[in-house]
Task: structure prediction
Amino acid sequence: MKDIFKIALVGRPNVGKSTLFNRLAGKKIALVDDRPGMTRDRREQKIMLAEFPYIMMDMAGFEEVDDKISASAQLQQKMNEQIKRGFAEADLILLMLDGRAGLLPDDAIIAKKVIQSGSDAVALVNKIEKPDSAPLLADFARLGFENYFAISASHGLGIDALKALLIEKFEDYYGENFKASDEDKKINLVLMGRPNVGKSTLINRLLDDDRVLVHDAAGTTRDALCFDWAWQGNVFSLYDTAGLRRKRGISEIVELLSSQDSLKAIRFSHIVAIVVDATEALERQELRLIRHAADEGRAVIILLNKWDKVRNKSAALQKVEQIVADTLPMIRYVPIITLSALKDDEFDIIPQAALQLYDLWCKKITTAKLNQWLAEKVVTHSPPLVSGRRLKIRYITQIKARPPQFHLFASADIPEHYLRYLAGALRDDFAWHGVPLRLIPRRGNNPYADKKPKRKLTSRKMMNRKK
Result:
């Protein structure tokens, strides 16, 4: 495995480095205050973006010092040396600038040091919260960077485009077939359903041990139970949950708490297996449960238990498939497995299906492949008119997996019907079956397009312009 990608976040004091650091980390790690100089030591944090790991180094604020005798100057000098060391270690340098304050002498000094380091670098002009702030960017073009982004770290503006750029950098660095933490893969498989559909019996058969109490009385299981289960070199955390009754059927506080505990199990699951009594109709409660799991971003399997008691098997299976197709378009082609927890001897199909779903849930598609696919889809089915003008779909990138999530950049708001078309095509063409997808529209240009700085005028050209 390659060494982890490192990013150095540099700039003057109080330009918003720690605020951006916290936003990218997804939690408040760095101290943030209006007073400059809150960060003195180099802070490092491992962060995941689209399943790619990287180290973010939050550096102290840079200030040029002439006086090297005073204690404060000596401290600043040591901090500057730390920043220089960060340049040498970084695969990418993010130079943060203050759009409100404009271009200051220290900005030019540190920009020169960044460029001289030879490292890949991007300039971020922070505190740009309003559209009319765009003219503030013109001064920063003189620094000589090929790419710079207008962002607001505190409000989250421009962060999507920045993340899209980072993903492309990671793809180039790690390679197309990179998989993070594959050796530590442990799949959380949660069994859910109505009371008395056979969840506990199935758990015992999978574990080949009577670990769970089984009784004909509905509601025997009250707590969400977890068991480690190894199958052909793969490790599962197998959860047995309390049967979920309709709300009006809950008569005791214990049952209510058990139901709430079962629903919470979805949040830490990777795959939710809905166990259904095949002799009964697929009820609204089970469909609601599948929809809830999909909304939480979890992959789903339907297990039709007690299949040995079903007479017309082909008609029963076709009916379930039709109901799922009609009512659950957001998670198309959910795997449906027929079984009998009491009568069957082999259950390999369940972990096999779970492993396939897990791989799909974690799957990433490179930005290049996605945009090649997008170009073909736009030709096949042209985007609609929006306010009398043809909509331009400019770019797509996968920002994360588990579940797969994408940002789609366009010239205007994308109509819902066209967004559904693209989401369905994405699911079908890349075989994301049984896995929810999140296709999030964004207005803006291609975030990867190079933004060349304006050419600096020579003194002769400036004189001619004045004339």
Q: What stands out?
A: The chain has twelve helices and 17 strands. The radius of gyration is 28 Å.
